[in-house]
């Protein structure tokens, strides 16, 4: 008789035959840089996460790296916003300052940057707005300028998350033209217009002032279209693919893993994190068990790298 329970009998046996494992070295920790000095502004919707001035951001990154985190993903909250998103590509912008400081303070840490305009535009959209519409091609130049400025400041990789058509090709051409052929692009290839981004909007101060992002982010009902996006981005020069949000998109992660032989990133987004945190605070579930089960499911689906707000806590749990 076949008895699959034989390898489930003890913790040691279960560990021996475990198929998917969460390793802190595969996790990326999101960090939010804000203006000022000695600033730590906790975020109500993201328990344990905060906006930090560059000095305190370096402290957090150094601590995380010492605990075993190998990479961070940087977001910036500028002092001022405008319609041209000028803070996104300012050589003295908040992310650019954070990159230079982190490169000096924690030189071994892998520095990834989110390349988007939403945190820097007065209207909160991810591209240039004309006549109430987000204009695709005019946005590409600004996105490319932002990516180059990140590379100049020390980014190890850039991660465009705007979902404008053709932005990977524009960024690749701009990076190569400025001598940054070695800088990889991790494209948010399949980024859905998801309800699970709510707490992030507080963290990045990026809520649209009108309308929504469904005109450029993907319809959550579409999986085949996601694979077309992945294929197009790879054709334009992407080195890795990001799928977001992770848990509602496990089927897309699995399909991308089976079809594309490149690193697959998945973003375990703010709403996924906040739901577990809120339920755990009410005693409805065990946070550690639920978090690790969620991250294991993302790995099991085929993600090589997971961006998660639990990254630092996972190092403590292990």
Kindly list the characteristics that best describe this protein.
about 40% helix; TIM Barrel; 11 helices; alpha/beta; ten-stranded mixed sheet
Can you give a write-up of this model?
The chain has helices at 11-16, 54-67, 94-105, 136-153, 167-177, 198-204, 224-236, 250-259, 270-281, 287-301, 311-317; strands spanning 27-34, 40-43, 46-53, 71-76, 110-115, 128-130, 133-135, 157-160, 186-191, 240-244, 264-268, 305-308. The protein has a single domain, classed as Aldolase class I (TIM Barrel). The strands form two sheets. Strands 1, 2, 3, 4, 5, 8, 9, 10, 11 and 12 form a ten-stranded mixed β-sheet that branches. The chain is α/β, with parallel strands linked by helices and 318 residues long. The protein has eleven helices and twelve strands. α3 runs parallel beside α4, α4 crosses α5 (167-177) and α5 (167-177) packs parallel to α7.
Briefly summarize what is shown:
The chain has 318 residues and is α/β, with parallel strands linked by helices. It is built from eleven helices and twelve strands. The longest helix is centred in the middle third of the chain and has 18 residues.
CATH architecture group name: Alpha-Beta Barrel
The CATH superfamily name is Aldolase class I
Low-confidence segments, given as residue ranges, are none
Class in CATH? Alpha Beta
* Rg calc: 19 Å
**Amino- and carboxy-terminal Cα gap:** 37 Å
Fold-level CATH name: TIM Barrel
Helicity, as a percent range = 25-40%
- SSE topology string: HEEEHEHEEEHEHEHHEHEHHEH
Which outline best applies? globular
Counting helices, strands and paired strands, the structural category is alpha/beta
Which range does the strand content fall in?
15-25%
Q: Count of helical segments?
A: 11
How many individual β-strands? 12
**Major β-sheet, in short?**
10 strands, mixed
Nearest-integer average pLDDT: 93
């Amino acid at each position: 008789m076949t008895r699959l329970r034989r390898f489930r009998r003890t913790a040691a046996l279960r560990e021996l035959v475990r198929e998917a494992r969460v390793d802190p070295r595969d996790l990326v920790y999101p960090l939010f840089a804000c203006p000022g000095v000695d600033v730590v502004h906790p975020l109500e919707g993201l328990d344990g996460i905060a906006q930090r001035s560059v000095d305190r951001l370096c402290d957090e990154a150094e601590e995380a790296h010492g605990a075993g985190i190998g990479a961070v993903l940087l977001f910036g909250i500028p002092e001022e916003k405008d319609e041209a998103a000028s803070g996104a590509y300012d050589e003295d912008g908040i992310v650019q300052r954070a990159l230079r400081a982190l490169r000096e303070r924690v030189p071994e840490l892998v520095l990834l940057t989110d390349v988007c305009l939403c945190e820097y535009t007065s209207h909160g959209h991810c591209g240039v707005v004309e006549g109430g519409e987000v204009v695709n091609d005019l946005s590409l130049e600004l996105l490319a300028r932002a990516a180059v400025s990140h590379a100049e400041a020390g980014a190890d990789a850039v991660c465009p998350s705007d979902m404008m058509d053709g932005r990977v090709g524009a960024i690749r051409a701009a990076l190569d033209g400025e001598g940054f052929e070695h800088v990889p692009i991790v494209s948010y290839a399949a980024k859905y217009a998801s309800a699970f981004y709510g707490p992030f909007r507080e963290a990045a101060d990026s809520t649209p002032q009108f309308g929504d992002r469904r005109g450029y982010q993907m319809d959550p009902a579409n999986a085949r279209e996601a694979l077309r996006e992945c294929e197009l981005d790879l054709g334009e020069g992407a080195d890795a693919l990001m799928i977001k949000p992770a848990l509602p998109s496990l089927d897309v992660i699995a399909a991308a893993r089976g079809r594309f032989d490149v690193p697959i990133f998945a973003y375990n987004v703010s709403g996924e994190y906040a739901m577990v945190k809120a339920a755990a605070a009410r005693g409805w579930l065990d946070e550690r068990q639920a978090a690790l089960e969620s991250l294991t499911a993302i790995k099991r689906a085929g993600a090589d790298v997971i961006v998660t707000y639990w990254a630092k806590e996972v190092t403590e749990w292990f």
